[in-house]
Specification:
Blueprint (H helix, E strand, L loop, with lengths): L24 E13 L2 E7 L11 E7 L5 E7 L9 E7 L5 H8 L6 E8 L11 E6 L3 H13 L6 E7 L15 E5 L16 H9 L7 E6 L1 H13 L7 E5 L3
Parallel strand pairs: 7-8, 7-10, 8-9, 10-11
Antiparallel strand pairs: 1-2, 1-6, 2-5, 3-4, 3-6
Length: 252
């Protein structure tokens, strides 16, 4: 079977996870590469030892060069748990990012990628409680898994999604959003865009918080460190309890 080309070589010695066993390293085969935006791709990986994940969980990806050098990064699962036998990871190419550049520019269908997961139990939503999801850029990836899970399982629990991107061409999964989603463009908007252009403000969040059902929202914020700090501060300033805010920070 083929392995990744480029600066990182083929599979290095490693374990796989037996069904029902501990989460260990295994090799997933790239079944498809889908270009989402000019700077991001979604990799569909078929796993020999697939196990269902919780929406919001992630996988660790490890690349090994021929000289033994390894680089490892975490990537959230974009697909819902109902998508059995495979997972989808969306990768944003980061300047000077050795892992993201390899995954976005070099990996092809048929290649194998070493990965471990699913892991993480804090930033997950399974549908029991109403949730307001707020994502900046590629921070929408784990939130998309939550949204897709809600649709696949026909979950009636209220859910709202707020996505912030710089420009229309940066919006991941643009064709999937419905009435539950609000998009904010921070630098440039589509022609005839009725809303304002700029970063998220208290005025952006206030009407969404006002839509909360009895008991309020659980709040999920994902994006860069600066994005998360900004949004969390706004939420607290608007009266949200810090104990209801879950944060996942993204970076290369």
């Amino acid at each position: 079977m083929s392995g990744p080309s480029g600066p990182f070589g083929g599979p290095a010695p490693g374990g796989t996870v037996p069904p029902g066993g501990a989460v260990r390293w295994q090799y997933g085969r790239v079944a498809a590469v889908r270009h989402e935006t000019p700077s991001s791709v979604t990799l569909r990986l078929e796993l020999p030892h697939w196990r269902p994940h919780l929406p919001g969980q992630h996988y660790m990806v490890r690349l090994t060069a021929p000289d033994g050098y390894t680089a490892q990064r975490d990537y959230s699962v974009a697909s819902p748990p109902a998508d059995t036998g495979a997972i989808e990871l969306t990768v944003l190419r980061v300047d000077d990012g050795e892992v993201s550049s390899h995954l976005a520019d070099v990996v092809e269908p048929g290649d194998e990628i070493e990965l471990r997961g699913p892991v993480g139990g804090y930033f997950v939503w399974t549908g029991e409680r109403p949730a307001l999801l707020i994502g900046g850029g590629s921070g929408v990836v784990p939130l998309a898994s939550m949204l897709r899970h809600r649709r696949a399982e026909r979950i009636a629990t209220p859910l709202r999604l707020l996505v912030s991107v710089s420009r229309p061409e940066d919006l991941l999964y643009a064709g999937e959003y419905g009435a539950e989603t609000t998009v904010v463009y921070t630098r440039a908007a589509p022609p005839a865009w009725p809303g304002r252009v700029g970063r998220i403000t208290a005025g952006t969040l206030r009407p969404l918080l006002a839509e909360a059902p009895p008991g309020g929202w659980d709040l999920y914020v994902c994006g860069s460190n600066g994005f998360c700090e900004h949004v969390a501060a706004l939420l607290v300033g608007l009266g949200a309890s810090p104990t209801r805010i879950r944060i996942e920070r993204f970076g290369e």
